[in-house]
Design a protein that fits this description.
alpha+beta; 2 domains; 5-stranded antiparallel β-sheet; Transcription Regulator spoIIAA; about 425 residues
């Protein structure tokens, strides 16, 4: 029987002239070659300037949460972020204004309709921040707080996610502004129900400009990895957004991020994601990776054809579906012993040795390892309660746990 393909990977000596990339880079290279010839789909045409995109462009990048970036194809080609910005602007609104303010104006339920639908919920709110009505409402909330500085604050925030300053495609902005009558209708509908307050045209200009921010597939990968890394940019190390906000952003991305293909995406790929009609897709797998793809040919839902295929292949090949997880909580304890089991360089006096031998059961040491979660800590608590629970002194060893002092304190409270 042949071994699985992943086990066929062998590092060759560099002296033999080989330069083998890691398995993930090999996968990206193969997938790029496989999908780049797929010329199905069409360029977005409701924004005239987007029809000028090169339909052959195809770039892919993956950023890990420890700061490594994989790239293939046209990963450095700039394009406009379009609706991918919605996820990050929603996160920014939550961080800037607070959950109560944002939730009072915008829902979090899938709409079941096209992204540019002129329709609100029964209580006259946008269905969620991933459709145009919700995104315009987010821009309106930020404009209400920042006024003339609203767009620059959004651009700065997007740049912090990407780890670099981002520019704007003025031609796309003007094209979107000049032809955005449907979005104007949405804006005035929101104004009618006081979801937007103030100058609708100014709010729409903020929205049009944020959609015209220039990014690359590599930028999107780093931005997605920042979400996957609990809001910490893995390249710069900056805490861009709080973990609380990240969790809520990823939740809405899961239910509504891929237009009216969101259910199918979750079923087949199973990674929180957001797409844009500029050809970009981000996917953020918590605690693991961020993915960015760029290919401007779109399917009937407005999602990148090649990007969808690559994401589905990646999820399938490496078993990345967030609802298909497996783990053994028992592996978090690597050692459980009493004080007599510890060797020491100290030469003990006879009376000290007798004291240890007599009372060694009074001191219990438990060594923990790996990232700890709710199930791990529940297991630890049960283990401590059932095995020698009456030891007067308990020592928990966190040296092999990647955790901050604050998180250690939280873990101890659970125990």
């Amino acid at each position: 029987m042949n071994a699985p393909a992943i086990l066929d990977y062998r590092l060759q000596p560099r002296s033999a002239g080989y330069n083998n990339p890691p398995p993930l880079q090999q996968f990206l290279n193969r997938s790029y070659e496989q999908f780049k010839s797929d010329d199905s789909g069409q360029l977005a045409d409701y924004i005239p300037e987007l029809t000028r995109a090169d339909p052959n462009h195809f770039g892919v990048s993956i950023a890990t949460i420890d700061g490594h970036v994989y790239e293939v194809g046209d990963s450095a080609v700039p394009f406009t972020i379009q609706s991918v910005s919605k996820a990050f602007v929603f996160a920014y609104a939550l961080e800037l204004l607070g959950v109560d303010t944002v939730e009072a104006a915008i829902g979090v339920e899938p709409s079941g309709e096209a992204f540019n639908s002129i329709r609100l919920t029964a209580d006259n709110r946008p269905f969620n921040p991933m459709v145009n009505a919700g995104a315009i409402a987010c821009s309106g909330l930020i404009y209400q707080a920042k006024r003339g500085a609203a767009f620059e604050s959004i651009r700065d925030m997007l740049g912090r996610f990407a780890g670099r300053e981002l520019g704007v495609d003025e031609a796309v902005y003007c094209s979107e502004r000049d032809t955005g009558d449907r979005n104007r209708a949405i804006g005035w509908l929101l104004r009618n129900y006081s979801v937007i307050r103030g100058d609708v045209d100014q709010v729409l200009n903020v929205y049009f400009r944020q959609c015209a921010v220039l990014v690359t597939a590599r930028d999107l990968a780093v931005m997605a990895a920042t979400l996957a890394n609990r809001g910490v940019n893995p390249i710069t190390g900056e805490q861009v957004i709080s973990p609380y906000v990240v969790a809520r952003t990823l939740s809405v991305m899961t239910s509504s991020g891929m237009y009216d293909y969101a259910g199918e995406w979750t079923y087949r790929v199973g990674i929180p994601a957001k797409s844009g009609v500029g050809g970009g897709i981000i996917a953020a797998l918590p605690s693991q990776i961020g993915l960015g793809t760029f290919s401007p040919r779109l399917d009937e839902h407005g999602n990148s054809v090649r990007g969808l295929k690559l994401c589905e292949a990646l999820s399938s090949r490496f078993d990345l579906h967030i609802l298909n997880r497996s783990a053994d909580v028992r592996t978090c304890i690597i050692a459980d012993y009493d004080i007599l089991s510890i060797s020491s360089r100290r030469i003990r006096q006879p009376h000290e040795q007798r004291l240890l031998e007599t009372h060694h059961d009074d001191i219990r040491i438990v060594e923990l390892v790996g990232a700890l979660n709710f199930a791990n800590m529940d297991y630890v608590a049960r283990r401590l309660a059932s095995d020698r629970p009456n030891a007067p002194l308990l020592i928990l060893d966190f040296r092999r746990v990647p955790i901050s002092p604050r998180q250690v304190h939280a873990c101890l409270e659970r125990i």
